Structure formats: C-alpha cells, structure tokens
Amino acid sequence: MAALGLLLATLYSGAATPGSATEATELNAAPQAAQVVRVAEFLAECPYSHRLPDDPIVFPGLPGASHMHSFFGSRATDAHTDVTELLGSSSTCSPAVDTSSYWVPTMYRNDQPVEPTGTTFYYLGEGVRDDIIQRIRPFPLGLRIVAGNAKATGVNDPTSVARWSCLHHGEVNPSKDFVNCPAGSMLESYLDFPQCWNGTDLDAPDHKSHMSYPVNGACPASHPVPVPKLRQVLRYPVSGSTQGLRLASGPGYTMHGDFFNAWPENELARRVTNCINVIVKCGADGNPS
Fold first, then answer.
1. What is the pTM of this model?
2. Torsion angle of alpha carbons 108, 112, 117, 118, nearest 10°?
3. What confidence tens digit (pLDDT) does each residue in 27-83 have?
4. Cα torsion at 84, 100, 113, 237 (round to 10°)?
5. In whole angstroms, what is the distance from residue 33 CA to residue 289 CA?
6. For residue 123, what are the β-bridge partners?
C-alpha cells in the first residue's frame, strides 16, 4: 500500500490541497484505542467476471453493438441490464453487497484477450477541500458514469484521462499510452471518475455531462453535489515490449471505464458517513482498516 500511495502521489500531484485526505501519512491525533489513517477511502475488490460486446450505458438494449468489454462486479451485466437486475445479481466483488457493474475495453496481446489479475475500485474523498469532503453524498442508486474516451485521438487529447504505469517500478514514467514494463512487473491502469454531480440526472445523452471534475478543490455551480471519487486500478499480467498490445477500443490512450451504481443504498451511505465524511481509511467491509 505504501508503494501504491507513492505512485498515486506521483500520478496525481497537484490535485491535493494542504491538509487534504491525500496526506496518507497523517494520523488522526485524537486519543482512541487504535490510530486510524486519515485518508477518506473505502474500496471494493471486484475480479473479472465475463466478456461481451455489450454496453448497457452507451448501447442499451443492443447486444453486440459495442466493442468487446471486460466486466467486473455483477455477473449479470449485458446489453439489457438495468438497476433492478443488478440489485438482484451475484457479484465478484468483496464486499459481495456491491452488485454494481464496472467495465472497460478488453485488452489484447497479439489478438489474444488479456484480463487484469488485480482489480481494485477505490472510493475516495480526495480532490476537494476537507470542508467539501464532509459534505460528500452517496451516489444515487442507478447513477451511470463514463470516464475517458474510446475515441481519443492521441496522448495530447485532453479527453484521454487514464494513465499507464508499471507495478513497483516508479522509474518508468506514467503515460496515457502503454508503457514498457520490466520483466517481473505488471502493466497498471489508473482512471479517476468525475466526483461532482448535477443533482438531477442519473445519465446524460453523452453519458458525461451530468458529471464534472472539481475545479480548484470544489465542485462547480453547475454540478454542486460532491460524491466519492471512484478510482479504477487494474493490473494486467503484461511486461516487456508493447508491440501487439491494444485495447478493443484502440491504442492505450483510448482506455475508458464505465460504472453503473447498484450499491444497496444503506451500505453505500454507511461507508460514505463512516469513511469518507470523517476522513478515515476503511477496508472492503466499510470499517476502519
């Protein structure tokens, strides 16, 4: 976790404000039985479930209309998925109560699919001021978000927001495109979803405009409701040359992620209250770790 914290600090330097939740080494000074790390965080570990050329956000009701996606979390996700189906589904996630669906374009190496063996979804308070962290609200049930751009045109395209790096090899500079990782390492993808909601819509025609990234540590007036920052971290068993490596959507800079929220409302609310709002680091069970 120390290595991950160092890498995240490198990737997202400048996003934090003094005294913010990203200061992972700061401990809560209040006397208590056990000190807790003062980081606004809980997480879900959601291993790979299945692959389909479906996308129930962008192409709802149209099986086979999308490029190939790799799904995590709910085992039921397909083109016809709605929130009711997700709530009643089984999940690969720990905790199993998270029946949300997460998906990304499938990775291929020499036209053979490669699935991540590390799949962590962090729910964070960082990116906004502490006083705003205290006002973060749970995602509304059924919220759909897309981060990144499957049609990004290059590494200089501002809509390409995912980063690639190498596990335990910080000397390899992160990039929007695939990077060459030393033998024994793994190729990692980091993607932050927007954390400001317009307070009204569960989706939008472009699947993005109902959400916004913070500006100067606060949510803009157009998107006044702060929600947790979802950070998708995937680790692929890939190292060495990037030749023959691609995503179903294209080069590495087309990496994108989809999130369809189906957390039971009480479970999500408990985690936001007990972990995010009070700036405490929690594990998958939603309790201080």
1. 0.87
2. 0
3. 343 334 456 678 999 999 999 999 999 999 999 999 999 999 999 999 999 999 999
4. -160
5. 13
6. 42, 230
